[in-house]
Amino acid sequence: MSPGGTHRLNRSPAALEARIAELEAQLAALQQQSDVSHEKQHLLEALFEHAVDILFIANFDSTLRYVNGAFKRMLGYGDASIKRPTWSYIVEAEQSNRLKEAIEHVMNNGFWVGRLTYVRADGSTFPGLLSTFLIYDQAGKPLARGGFIRDLTEQEQHERELQTQQAQQAQLQAEIISAQRKALHELASPLIPLAERVLVMPLIGSLDSHRTQQIIATLLEGVSVHQAKTVIIDITGVPVVDTQVAHTLLQATQALKLLGAHVMLTGIRPEVAQTVVGLGVDLSGIQTLGNLQQAIAASLR
């Protein structure tokens, strides 16, 4: 121990060499960390620059701090892009106000996602999906506002094409349903040409107000087209004959008489005759026969 009680530093060659090796190892480690950091930064920059979507970082006064290559390519402003505030790329004052509301929402909630219409340097526009968010420093304080802008032109075109296809499909489906209804109507109320100027309509199933109107319309059209003089209406397949059905038959008879056609009614079962009499419906103006065979024979005579 030296005078004064302090330890003498070990300055032997071996100790110095060990210390130098330790410092060199620390320097190599720091250099490696720096190389890795630079490599990561280079990869991120390459990723951002070649991204299809626009990437940007904006200050809180809406001036831009960073824009990637897609920003310049998509908007067409070149290096001047970064000199313009973010709101200057939005179409119309209404959308500018919406962007301001979006920025306010970001400041309060940390993020915002929505559609805006952007304007390029040549005056053309495109729909864009803006996703913007807060960027924080290491202390957790808001540092800037980042964002992505995706060009929705192709997506909206696809949506329009899909809507057109859906509309066409809906129209085609409506036409198919209409054709099916028409076919069912013709099957439910068939009008059969029996002989020259003789038509037969066998009715099957229940008759409601809509179907009765269709029956009358079919009869009138058929008489007019075929210039028929005799129309045979067979109600054997009608399960229930009530006041509405009876009045329908009367209306049809009166309408056909106006066109010069004679009406024969067949298929009146005993219980149907009782019901008609009980209802007090007067069918005296209609010629009635027991069955369809008798009516056909009469019409042919």
Question: How would you describe this structure to a colleague?
Answer:
This protein is of the alpha/beta class. The protein has 8 helices and 10 strands. It folds into 4 domains: 10-50; 55-151, Beta-Lactamase (2-Layer Sandwich); 154-186; 189-300, 2-Layer Sandwich (Transcription Regulator spoIIAA). Helices cover 50% and strands 22% of the residues. The strands form 2 sheets. The chain has a 5-stranded antiparallel sheet with strand order 2-1-5-4-3. Strands 6-7-8-9-10 form a 5-stranded mixed sheet, with helices on both faces. Strand 8 (230-237), helix 6 and strand 9 (262-266) form a beta-alpha-beta unit. Helix 5 packs parallel to helix 6. The model is unreliable at 1-7 (pLDDT under 50).
Oligomer: single chain
Distance from first to last alpha carbon: 153 Å
Radius of gyration equals 46 Å
Strand order in the largest sheet: 2-1-5-4-3
Mean pLDDT value: 81
Structure summary:
Keywords: Coiled coil, Phosphoprotein. By secondary structure, the chain is α/β, with parallel strands linked by helices. The protein is built from eight helices and ten strands.
